[in-house]
Amino acid sequence: MSLTVVGTMAFDEIETPFGKSGKIIGGSATFIAWAASNFVSPINQVSVIGGDFPQSEIDALKAKGVAMDGVQVKKDEKTFYWSGKYHMDMNTRDSLVTDLNVLADFQPVIPENYQGSEFLILGNLTPQVQMSVLDQMKERPKLIVMDTMNFWMEVAMDDLLKVLKKVDVLMVNDGEARQLSGEYSLVKAARKILTMGPRFLIIKKGEHGALLFHENHVFFAPAMPLDDVYDPTGAGDTFAGGFIGYLAKTKDISFENMKTAIIVGSAMASFCVEKFGTERIRAVSKDEIHARINQFVQLVNFDIDLV
Amino acid sequence: MSLTVVGTMAFDEIETPFGKSGKIIGGSATFIAWAASNFVSPINQVSVIGGDFPQSEIDALKAKGVAMDGVQVKKDEKTFYWSGKYHMDMNTRDSLVTDLNVLADFQPVIPENYQGSEFLILGNLTPQVQMSVLDQMKERPKLIVMDTMNFWMEVAMDDLLKVLKKVDVLMVNDGEARQLSGEYSLVKAARKILTMGPRFLIIKKGEHGALLFHENHVFFAPAMPLDDVYDPTGAGDTFAGGFIGYLAKTKDISFENMKTAIIVGSAMASFCVEKFGTERIRAVSKDEIHARINQFVQLVNFDIDLV
User: Fold this and answer.
1) Helix H segments across A219-254?
2) Lesser CB count within 10 Å: N end or C end of chain B?
3) What PANTHER family does the record tag this protein with (chains A, B) (predicted)?
């Protein structure tokens, strides 16, 4: 069972009401891989980095079973860099600097030894890059999960709609679901998006949890109430990594199993926000993950015995 | 088993993106009584109305087992009137007119036949009025639930803190929990509020569900995802009515049973928002309530079988 992860590997520099991170490792594919590596191996990473990306970070991911054959290293260029500042509510942020660097002309190449991967997750990237990956897969993966963002809806909607037709699960946040569908009600938005290609839709609502829609079914998973959200960066990608990692581990892509996968993703995301960047999720143990998932069971479990 | 409900009975006039209500019946005690009457009887209503309040509304509540002995009728005065306008997100609203009328000098009187009531809910009113009710109860009810709002934190915090010391369950929204505690994190806010008197705290988050805190335990109930929220007015009071109605019916005030009561409250609130005012909850059937509660089970239920 293998999982292919496509996305960014980056430098982040983050300011929150709690402090400043300095220049740390980030990127969608980084968070996805760290989260998923707790459940599945090998992970086939597809990304691009510059000569300034630390070898120690690559070694650390390799040690967790993440293959780097599909990660292009452009020795003389710089890694994608993003810096941002969060407001007090931790749900809104300003981007301060976005230097695409190596990402500007990223042409992903799927190595031969990645072919036959049964699970594929397309992290947030241009729809053209996402489509290029799909075109290179000789055999359609059993499950294709896609993330995207409002920016691509504004500048590349036609391409985005083409990719949408080819994926099984779309993950967006509530604002993006509204923008993509033109519907304010998330239920109506979901109904419309489920006609655009994906059979499953996950709407992420940050601290307000996540919704999974499929046919006429809906499932809701809360976010774990925490003393403090220290840094939300990467929480959505960590959620995605836990979600697809659990599916790849259990090899069951039914709606029922996706519910559990969403709880697993929520548990992983709840670790991510406890520290800056990948600090917490790279150190989390299996016991901690199980304990956190049990907390989710306690959080939502109730007995019903109506007379 | 009887339940005493203290709160307003009012005229509301509401504008939402979906339409205008005209002058309709509202008020916290009205919504609480309609919701709770599906579970418990008698309900001992304590409120004040003017001569302009329709007899048909009083008769309708009486027919549902709501006693009116504690509702003062001031023939020559006008009923409390509120009008407001909701924004597109349905979570924010502007008050257009607030005419206190009979509410301005409301002195609640608990009739002798209300004494011995085992459940008491203090709807949102001045802390002085809430305290006056508590002072009149010859025997402390088994469970006292209290609602309040940010306005009383601003103008009557000392009185509010005194009432808080005497109640078992406090219900507030997320902004009010933050204001009352001075903590941004809802987990920290809850910890602090649970030292102020109440043993249980419910934080209502509107379309984002509700949290129940008790000692070191936390429970989360989502709001039902709906095609449209037509009118949120009274949803919090309807939630409260379903909550305390279910507790009064089952006579079980354990944390475990409160979880179920919160689901029942959420189900009742999900009906409330489907139409203007009390239109939907006064017509809801037991079968519809059961079906909606089952939808909540489906919404949050998942299997966990971690290897």
Assistant:
1) 235-250
2) C
3) RIBOKINASE (PTHR10584:SF166), SUGAR KINASE (PTHR10584)
